[in-house]
Design brief:
Blueprint: H1 12-40, E1 72-78, E2 95-101, H2 118-129, E3 137-142, H3 158-164, H4 167-173, E4 175-177, E5 190-191, H5 207-215, E6 223-224, E7 232-235, H6 236-239, H7 244-256, H8 261-269, H9 272-277, H10 286-294, H11 300-317, H12 322-327, H13 329-357, H14 360-372
Parallel strand pairs: 1-2, 1-3
Antiparallel strand pairs: 3-7, 4-7, 5-6
Helix pairs in contact: 2-7, 2-8, 10-14, 11-13
Length: 373
């Protein structure tokens, strides 16, 4: 085969003998350095190892509230392959684990059809099947102990979050989304009147129809907002706010909809507050929720510090991509060193926040400050 002459074709095979190995070596060197840096980063000292080792240093083993007389079911939406051994480390008295398996119809607990409607079908199935035998509180989660939607303010850990959840406050509130952050959620995330597509909230054009069909109403709230991601706690009274038949209606809708699994599951992320407490917008002040619901209490100085550090962390993480690292290895060292420092500071601030939260008088004072801020 004859190739055209010119600069492009000049000694191309010869050059590639040097370019390809050099590129491979550079990339390999970069990833080796990345692995080394990652291994040197200090770990958040309170993250619970979900492989059965418990707390790293024991500081967070005992929540500062007493829920000994409260019955709790933890409903976990899983696939057969999921490992949920981390649940053994949750510090909740009277906790009963109920594992639903979406892809195994022979499992003890499973939805009517496999892998449909994501976790929403599992949750509705539980509420229908257990309607007459509900505990004081039912907590609904995914299978992953450290999902992206558990904030680093909660140690990026469901074990941490659940072990510190104030069950008495849940009983008073009746419904509480385990995630607190307003990011991509509050105060006015979903507009049910919109019909155009937005890649960041692909379910939005479907919300009006989903709400109308599931609740049999044409009076659809224009704005739906609340922390994301279908991990929440609901009381017996909240579930029984509707008759048992409501959950069968929701199950049938999820099984029969022609929408894909992603959309049918996502629309329900925005309807849980309405289902349980009749709220279209459920956006409590973030700092207040951390303190009141988890006893993780930040004073004004630590709050400002966290806001600035998290903003800096977000900007730095955008500079740690492969291309940026190859173009500027020295700068990459500096960025990763600073990220390590920020991670250590955040861990220290979390420790202080938990200590503050142990003192009821301090909690009361800070909660009052939040209300006045």
């Amino acid at each position: 085969m004859n190739f055209p002459k010119g600069l492009v074709s000049l000694r191309l095979p010869h050059y590639w003998r040097f370019v390809v190995p050099a590129f491979v070596l550079t990339v390999s060197f970069y990833f080796l350095l990345g692995s080394f840096w990652q291994g040197q980063q200090p770990q958040v000292p309170y993250h619970v190892d979900f492989h059965g080792k418990g707390d790293v240093d024991g500081h967070f083993a005992s929540p500062s509230h007493d829920g000994n007389d409260i019955s709790v079911n933890l409903i976990i939406a899983t696939l057969s392959k999921d490992d949920i051994s981390w649940t053994q480390n949750i510090k909740i008295p009277n906790l009963k684990i109920i594992r639903y398996v979406s892809d195994d119809l022979k499992a003890e607990f499973h939805p009517p059809v496999p892998k449909k409607g994501r976790e929403a079908l599992i949750y509705h199935t539980y509420m229908h099947d257990f309607y007459d035998d509900l505990p004081d509180i039912s907590i609904f989660t995914h299978a992953d102990e450290s999902p992206w939607h558990v904030e680093d303010t909660l140690n990026s850990s469901l074990t941490f979050a659940l072990s510190h959840l104030d069950l008495n406050e849940v009983l008073q509130r009746q419904y509480f989304n385990l995630r607190v952050s307003w990011e991509n959620a509050c105060p006015n995330w979903i507009n049910t009147s919109k019909t155009d597509n937005d890649w960041s909230k692909q379910e939005e054009p479907y919300m009006h129809e989903a709400f109308s069909e599931n609740f049999a109403t044409n009076e659809v709230p224009e704005i739906l907002a609340g922390p994301c991601c279908s991990q929440f706690a609901a009381t017996r009274d909240a579930v029984r706010r509707h008759p048992k038949s409501q959950y069968r209606i929701n199950m049938e809708w999820l099984m029969q909809t022609h929408w894909n699994d992603y959309i049918s599951g996502r629309v329900w992320e925005h309807m849980w507050p309405w289902l349980f407490v009749g709220k279209a917008v459920d956006c409590d002040v973030e700092w207040k929720s951390y303190c009141k619901m988890y006893h993780v209490c930040f004073d004004p100085q630590s709050r400002n510090r966290l806001i600035n550090l998290k903003e800096e962390k977000k900007e730095l993480e955008m500079k740690t991509g492969l291309l940026e690292g190859l173009l500027d290895l020295l700068k990459g060292f500096e960025v990763r060193n600073r990220l390590r420092e920020i991670k250590a500071i955040l861990a220290e601030e979390l420790e202080k926040a938990v200590e503050r939260g142990k003192d009821e008088a301090v909690r009361t004072k800070l909660l009052s400050d939040y209300n006045n801020s």
